[in-house]
Automatic annotation (TrEMBL):
A Pfam family this chain is assigned to: LigB
Gene3D superfamilies named in the record: LigB-like
Name by which UniProt lists this protein: Dioxygenase
Entry similarity comment: Belongs to the DODA-type extradiol aromatic ring-opening dioxygenase family.
InterPro entries (alphabetical): Extradiol_dOase_DODA, Xdiol_dOase_suB
Organism (species): Methylomonas denitrificans
C-alpha cells in the first residue's frame, strides 16, 4: 500500500491505548476508573485527533465516521436520566477521515453513526473540554481476529501524524455472569491475569487465537469487547514499551484492565 508521508514531521509519535470502559455510568461517576482516565489525559501528548475502535459499533465492512459534528449515541437502557442527558460535543475530522479512506479504500466513510458510549464515556474524562476531534472506526463483522490485528498494524502511520488510537472494550465481558457489586468470579480474575501475562510476554499469536485459551467461552462469550485489543497489539512495534492501568476485575465478570503502548 502506498502511504503518503506524514503531513507534520515535527509531531511526536503518539502512544496507543486499549481501555476497559466497563459500565456507562463511569462517564458521570467519580471513581477509580474515571480518575485514572482523567490523569491519563493530563499526561499524554496532546493529540491532533482521536481514532476510537469501540466494541459497540459493528458493521458489514469497516466504516469510519466522517461528519463534522458526531452525535452522542446513548446505546444502552435502564440507566439514570442524567446519563441519557449527557452530551459529549467533540468535533469530528472529515478531512482526516477522507485521507484515511483515500489511503485505505476498504474503510468506507460514514455519515450516520456518531460517538457511542465506548468512546465518549472514557474521552469525556481524558479530554473534558471536548476540544479534540474524534472519529470512530467500526468493527468489521466479516474480519477474522487475525485480520483485525493486521488492520491495526496498517493504521500505524496515524500515530506518526499525532493521532491517538484508542481501542475500547473489556478483555473479560460476560453480562450473564454479572454480579452488581465490586467483586469478581475467580475464573474472570484468572483469565484477565492470563491475558496480562501474554501481553507482558509479547505473545501476540496466543492473543490473536484467544478462543483457544481456557475459559475463553466464559470470559468472552461474544467477540466485540475483546477485538479492540487486537488493534492495539497490531500497533505495537517490536520492543516498544507497554504498561497497564485500571487493572481490576469487577462486577463479577468485567475486566477493567487497560493497556498503553508507547
Amino acid at each position: 500500500m502506498n502511504m503518503a508521508k506524514p503531513d507534520n514531521q515535527n509531531l511526536a509519535r503518539m502512544p496507543a491505548l486499549f481501555i476497559g470502559h466497563g459500565s456507562p455510568l463511569n462517564a458521570i461517576e467519580d471513581n477509580e476508573f474515571s480518575r485514572a482516565w482523567a490523569a491519563l489525559g493530563q499526561t499524554l501528548p496532546r493529540p491532533k485527533a482521536v481514532l476510537c475502535i469501540s466494541a459497540h459499533w459493528q458493521t458489514e465492512g469497516a466504516r469510519i465516521t466522517a461528519m463534522p459534528q458526531p452525535r452522542t449515541i446513548h446505546d444502552f437502557y435502564g440507566f439514570p436520566k442524567a446519563l441519557f442527558d449527557f452530551v459529549y460535543p467533540a468535533p469530528g475530522s472529515p478531512v482526516l477521515a477522507m485521507r484515511i479512506h483515500e489511503l485505505m479504500p476498504s474503510i468506507v466513510l460514514d455519515q450516520d453513526w456518531g460517538l457511542d458510549h465506548g468512546s465518549w464515556s472514557i474521552l469525556c474524562h481524558m479530554f473534558p473540554e471536548a476540544d479534540v476531534p474524534v472519529m470512530q472506526l467500526s468493527l468489521d463483522l466479516n474480519k477474522s481476529p487475525e485480520q483485525h490485528y493486521q488492520l491495526g498494524k496498517a493504521l500505524g502511520w496515524l500515530r506518526d501524524e499525532g493521532v491517538l488510537i484508542v481501542g475500547s472494550g473489556n478483555i473479560v465481558h460476560n453480562l450473564q455472569a454479572a454480579i452488581w457489586r465490586d467483586t469478581a468470579h475467580d475464573w474472570a480474575v484468572a483469565f484477565a491475569e492470563r491475558i496480562k501475562q501474554l501481553l507482558i510476554d509479547g505473545d501476540h499469536r496466543a492473543l490473536v487465537r484467544y478462543r483457544e485459551l481456557g475459559d475463553a467461552a466464559l470470559a468472552i462469550p461474544t467477540d466485540e469487547h475483546f477485538l479492540p485489543l487486537l488493534y492495539i497489539l497490531g500497533l505495537r512495534d517490536e520492543g516498544e514499551s507497554l504498561g497497564f492501568f485500571t487493572d481490576k476485575t469487577t462486577l463479577g465478570a468485567i475486566s477493567m484492565l487497560s493497556v498503553q503502548v508507547g
